[in-house]
Amino acid sequence: MQLTTAAIAATAPPSTRVRRLRSGFIGSAESAAAAVPPRRWLSGMGRRVLPPAAAVPPFKGTDGTSTGGSAAAGAAGAVHASQTDTQTGLVFQPIGEEVRPLVADLDEQLMNPASEPGCAGTRSMARSGYSVDVEAAFNEQISIELTMSYIYTSMYAFFSRDDVGLPGFAAYFRHNSDEERHHARLLLDYQTQRGGRVKLLPLAAPETEYWHAEKGDALHATELALSLEKLNFTKLRELHTVAQAAGDADATHFIEDYLLHEQSKDVKAAAVLVSQVHRAGRGHGVFHLDRVLSEEYGNKEGVIA
Q1: Mind listing the domains of the chain with CATH numbers?
Q2: CA 284 to chain centre
């Protein structure tokens, strides 16, 4: 004997029937339609709640006449269709008076026959509020950093010689050379990031001999290194002044965070080394300090002490 759903519901205890009615298992078509939550759809940046459709939608027969439903249901369907076709919410509208000149400038670059990639007549499309004075100052600082790296490379070669025999000092100056070259790359990358043109200037040939009859080679070279670091710190502050005068907040932020603070620490480190070399004197003291530099910089730079 098979029992229908209605029969099972009739024989079930009242509490069970209530639970099933609440859960939607049994009930009339009207109660089922009321239990269905209203449909939601997204439009633009907002959320719209549509009223529930009629319980019995109209049915259109083959003769073109509609049966079932009501006039109100038909009107509700028309409202739903119109609401579905209409999108509301935030619509992006360009600020014409401010954006139009920028778009026209880009069109002038892109539509110019001479503006092919790699041609000398091209100019950056990313450039925005970048002063020519700041651009020139960055190119000058790039050359300063490369010049310092060039000098430190010469010092590294001098102390690596067998007739000098101070590999720890060689490792120290090689580290300084790499650091200055890294600073030059930072400046170069920022120049291109802002749409500037990098113009490398000629580098003067550095000294190749660092002997000194009175002070000795180690003290002479470290004093020269300290003088270079202090000069570079001055040049970076001048670069910061140029960017600040141009009102370029991004350039001043870059100089402060990536260059100025690090350079002040480099000046302190170079000054400490000069004091240590001066205290050590010439001879065995310099040899001992060279061993200390080998432990600190030799393994990092691959220079065998």
Answers
A1: 1-39 (no CATH), 98-127 (no CATH), 132-301 (1.20.1260.10)
A2: 50
